[in-house]
Amino acid sequence: AIYNLGSINIDYFYQVEHLPAPGETISAIEYMVNLGGKGLNTSVAAQRAGADVRHVGAVGRDDAVVRRMLAELGVDDTRVVGVEAQTGHAVVYVDAASENSIVIFGGANQAIDETNVRAGLDGAGPGDWLLLQNETNANELGLKIAREKGMKVALVAAPFETGALVDLIGQVDLVSMNRTETAQYEAALGQAVREVQGPAFLLTYGAEGSVFIDGESETRVAAFAVDAVDTTAAGDTFFGTFLAQHAAGAGIKEAMRFASAAAAVKVTRKGAAKAIPKAEEVRVFLRS
Ligand code: ADP
């Protein structure tokens, strides 16, 4: 199974004419509320790709609204603990040119303790994956407990922050980064990803595809040419799908191709978690 120790956010979207300037008050043209967070998005992607996913995380105690949203997405919340903090959320302004400004409140995602992680990973063992992103306070704890249990560990190195994340990257089995994160990592390290010993890297380059680097070997897969309308969660879809395929024993190239197809379908649809395709929809796309 894939144990995803990851963020859960309620995303509040406001479509606006222009992004508000300091001191300015403006009216929104449209308003939407969706469940998001990198962690939750990758859980949905891996699950829709067919994996057995156990989402491990935290929301506000007694937050029935977020639990109902999890149920609507088909995410089991048994291992999502209620804590004394508000559910994480993001306030997103998107202007007419699709430029955005985002404020994230970590809340419950930043209030996960060792007891929560141990309970969340109960029953996990060798052969299982732990998936991490950089939106909770529990990555070091997760890594430590996963190693005790003999699990493999994958990390989506986003959002990129130097310090703890750079150290963490060197300690996991598989790392996923987009173009920006790869550049930030290489700048922080003063070294090219190809020279880093240890983890395998899956690097994504938007419409230019992706490359998997494991020691000496490199595997490249092109992106599918589609008319993108919303690239939100492209990377989350790509990596969740890749890991689901990889964990199920697919070859690297095959898993990358399927993940590229899933991400291509996603970018043709508006929205994050809700817009992530199921395996059957990806197969239909690949046959088309
Ligand atoms: P992130 O969303 O994390 O910034 P990327 O933009 O690199 O990640 O996208 C991840 C993957 O999604 C790419 O490797 C590609 O397979 C797919 N993808 C992203 N944007 C497009 C696009 N415009 N057209 C087709 N595929 C895309």
From TrEMBL:
Q: Which residues participate in ATP binding?
A: N178, T204, Y205, G206, A207, E208, G209, G235, D236
List the Pfam families. Answer: PfkB
Q: What is its EC number?
A: 2.7.1.15
The UniProt entry's GO CC annotations, sorted and at most eight, read: cytosol
What compartments host this protein?
Cytoplasm
> Which residues make up the binding site for substrate?
N9, I10, D11, G37, K38, G39, L40, N41, E135, D236
UniProt-annotated catalytic positions = D236
Q: InterPro entries, per this entry?
A: PfkB_dom, Ribo/fructo_kinase, Ribokinase, Ribokinase-like
Instruction: Identify the cofactor(s).
Output: Mg(2+)
Q: Which Gene3D superfamilies match?
A: 3.40.1190.20
Q: Does the keyword Aminoacyl-tRNA synthetase apply?
A: no
- In the record's cofactor note, how is the cofactor described as bound? Requires a divalent cation, most likely magnesium in vivo, as an electrophilic catalyst to aid phosphoryl group transfer. It is the chelate of the metal and the nucleotide that is the actual substrate.
Extract the GO molecular function terms from the UniProt entry.
ATP binding; metal ion binding; ribokinase activity
Q: What is its main location?
A: cytoplasm
Taxonomy, superkingdom: Bacteria
Task: Give me any GO biological process, just one.
Answer: D-ribose catabolic process
Residues that bind K(+): D230, T232, K266, R269, G271
Q: Which residues form the Carbohydrate kinase PfkB domain?
A: 5-278
UniProt similarity note: Belongs to the carbohydrate kinase PfkB family. Ribokinase subfamily.
Question: In UniProt terms, what function does this protein have?
Answer: Catalyzes the phosphorylation of ribose at O-5 in a reaction requiring ATP and magnesium. The resulting D-ribose-5-phosphate can then be used either for sythesis of nucleotides, histidine, and tryptophan, or as a component of the pentose phosphate pathway.
Tell me how this protein assembles.
Homodimer.
What protein name is recorded for this chain? Ribokinase
**Which organism is this protein's natural source?**
Shimia abyssi
| Gene name of this polypeptide | rbsK
